[in-house]
Structure formats: C-alpha cells, structure tokens
Amino acid sequence: MLAHLWGALRELFPARRHKNVILGLIVVIAIVPLSEMAVAKLFSGMVIDGPELIRTDPQAVFVQIAIFFAAFIVARGMQHAARAYRVRAINTAFRDSDRAPSPSQQSWEWALAFELTGVLATLVQAAVFSLLFLVLDPLIGIVNLFVAGFVIALVASMFDRQLRIQREFAYTRAKPSSDSIALRVRTRVITGEQGAMIGSAALVLMLGALLWQVLAGEAPLDNAIVLFLGLRLMYGQLSNLSSGAMRFARALANRDKGLVGARRGQLPDVTIGYSSLSSRLEGIPDPASMRGAEVVVVAQTGGDQGPSESEQETIAALEDKGAAVTVLRSRGVAKSRNEVMRQATRKYLVFCDDDVTVDLDGISDVVAHMRDTGAALVLARAVDEDGNLRKKYTTRDRRLSLLTSGKAATYEMVVDMDQVKAQDVWFDERFGAGARLYLGDEYIFIADVMRAGMRAEAVPITIAMHPRESSGSRWATDEDLEARAAAVTRAWGSRAWLGRSLFAARHVRTFGPSGAVRFVRGPHGL
C-alpha cells in the first residue's frame, strides 16, 4: 500500500514544489490532532486543579481559560484552513501540469488526490500519536506500536486484495454487468467496514491496557485523560483508514484504466514477430490490420531444403502486404526467436506463432505499462479458443522470479528490445521446440533477463489467444525429466541444485521417488 501511495504522489504531483506543498499540508493536517491533545491536556488540568486554584489564584484560572480557548481556536482554524487550501493546492498542481487528461480521467485524478492526502494524513497522525503516547506513558506507547502496526498491516493487506478486484475489471476490460458493479461496491464497502471493526477492536484493547495502568496507579490522572482522548482519536482515524484506503484503491484502478484507454490506438513502436514453418504461413494475419505495428515473420523450412514454390508465393504475398519475411533453413524455435529479435527494428517486441491471435488492445496496455515502469520484459495473459484463461495467472502486477516464471509461454511475452540487446540477452538455442531439450527456452530467457539486472514483471493483461495444446503431454518420461532438469540447471546457474530440489519436491508425486532423485542429480552433459 505504501508503494502505491508514494507512486500516486509522484505521478499526480511530479513537480517538486507542488509535491512539497502537498506534503506540507499533510503534515499540518496530521499534527492538528496533536495540538488538540495539548488543548485537551490544558482542559484536563483546569478540571482537576481548577476548583482549588480558583479559590487561591482566580487570575491564574482566567489566564488558563483564555489560553485554552485561544489554543482551541488556533488548532481548529489550522485544520479547516489546511483542508480548504488542499483544494487550491491540488488545482494549482493539476493546472500547471503538462498532461491533458480526459474529463473522466481528470475526475478520477481528483478523487485519487483527495483519498491520497487523506490516507497519508491518517498514517502521519498515527505516527505522531504514537510518539506522544511513548512520552506520556512508555508502556502504553510500546503496546500501541504493536497494536497500531498490526491494524495498519491488516488494512494494507485488505487494500491489496481490493486493488486486485478493482484492477481486474480495468485490465480485462470486462463489460461491467449489474453483478460486477454490485461486486465492486459490495466488496469495497464490506472491506472498509471490516477494517473499521478491526480498528474498534484495537481501541478496546488499548483502553483496557490504559485502564489497567490507571488502576495500578502507574498513570497520572491528567495523563490518563489525555491518553484516553488520544487513543479514541487515533483509533477512530485508523478505523476510517480502511474506508479511505478502499476508496483510494477504487480511484487508483479507475485512473489507471483511463490512462490505458487514452494510450490505446496505433502501435508505432511495436514489432509483432511470428515464428512459423514455411508450410504454415497462411496463418499469418494481414500486416495492415496491426495498427501500424511492424510485422516480422521468420519461416523455417525444417532442414536444408528451401521453401516450395507455393510457399514462396505465400512469402511474396506477405512481403507485398508489408511484412518483413526471413527464411531459415533450419529447425528449432529458439533459432527462430533469435532471428525475430535480430530483424525487429521497433522498441517493443511481441512474440507470436502462426496459430496465435493477438489482442492489440492488450498489447497497447502492456506497452503503456512498460513505458511507465521501465520493465524490460512483461509476461501477460493468454486465453484459449473459448476465451478461457490458459492457466492460473496473477491478478495484480508482480515482479517475476525464478520461482514464478517457469510456466511462461513465448506468446505471453513482450520485450523491450533496447534493454535486452544492450545486455546481449538471447534465447539459448539448445532449448525449445525442435531441439533435443524441447522446452525451457522461455524460462531461461526470462532468467537471463533478470540475471542481467533488468526488470521483469507479470501483469493481468490479456494479449493473445492460443489453442489448447502443450508440450507437457510428455510429463515425467525420461526425455521430459532430462529436458526439465537441464532447463532448471541452465536457468538457476550456480544455484541449480536448489532449483532442481525445489522443483522435484513440488512434483514428486508425478516424477515418483526414483524420478525425483534423478531430477535432483541433474542432466547429463549440459
């Protein structure tokens, strides 16, 4: 949650002076309750000592009353002034920005800015109150740190789940039926109330601890009154934090959806690279339908022979339509992918097969995401011919690792060619369909990208349709064990023993005990 808050702050207020103004307002809004606590301490002192003091020194009592009301007016005035000026500050920052959002996107950016400042102010308030409690009563302060930290961690977890739900609609571009709208509203409201209940339960716990301190004679009465009021204020704000965080999730998802929609259209910096056999080129779509994307086709003949006469005619037709076609007298999909990378002239490369149907809107969304994040490789989603997801995919943006990228398919990948070529990363041609080690080429490529220090991510965006078929039908055969062990060994490098052990432990039922042992031992002659 904190990463999303900081990211939204930087995106909405890129200029340092505007960002500093907003941060200053957040601090002012956050410290107002602290000033109110000082006022409350003045009031509690007057209530406790006032009856005795008014008989001995009436003038001192009237001075305290005057100071109390003056401090109260200043504290409340600071709060109202800061909240009112917040509108002006946000408007000034948006007006000075060189962005030109659509009316819908602008509306969500305003909502995002308000929820952002509200949530950040609540978190800063919690920090300020926690410091105050440590000063007034160290034991209560320490207990509060654990309790408040637990509440904030739970709210952050709820925020992550809610953001996934909201983004699911935005990224998949599902048409919201009445059920989906009800789901978004219901889950957001219910999640907010669940967080409020957690905050209330935490308040009860803290009040119990305070009461114990008072009854034990460990807390002075005036401090106890201030602590009571402070705990109510702080945990009341933490109860509201949940609702504010859920509204922030909604605004963030819808703002991002507006950004994605605004960026869709032509694909002037995209290459769509097809790897195919020369006998299957009829499946390549018309390059004119690709919204300005470059179309590169690498046709393999499967051996030393060249393409047949009919295949040459198909190649000529593709070239007449604008495709760049290269013929390789070889076999092995990794060789074809590498040739696609060599022939691509645009910044972003989408890998395709002749039986893949690309989702151009999805590709546009992924490219927009890569521009924003600087990712060198993105692993997106694919569906089958019935529109069902081909596997279990992530429901939120997630950094890839060696543990999460083993099931990658090439047609799910989009690559920033500037970064990849600069690091000299290519497919290992010993792996992949058509080679003896018939799988793992994608996994190894992703591992090499990450090993080179580049950013690789998975995002919940659909970019391709591919029919149901998989090389996994050879699972657990001797050939399969050898190929998978080799792929894991190549991907994990010096830690290959760990990768093979983890993989074997996960699939021991499929491999069988002896197969698992052979897998852990590793491949022969890699």
From TrEMBL:
CDD domains: Glyco_tranf_GTA_type (cd00761). Residues 312-396 form the Glycosyltransferase 2-like domain. The keyword Cell cycle does not apply. Keywords: Membrane, Transmembrane, Transmembrane helix. Gene3D superfamilies: Spore Coat Polysaccharide Biosynthesis Protein SpsA, Chain A (3.90.550.10). InterPro entries: Glyco_trans_2-like (IPR001173), Nucleotide-diphossugar_trans (IPR029044). SUPFAM superfamilies: Nucleotide-diphospho-sugar transferases. It comes from the Bacteria. The chain crosses the membrane at residues 21-40, 60-78, 110-133, 139-159, 196-215. This is Glycosyltransferase 2-like domain-containing protein. It comes from Demequina activiva.
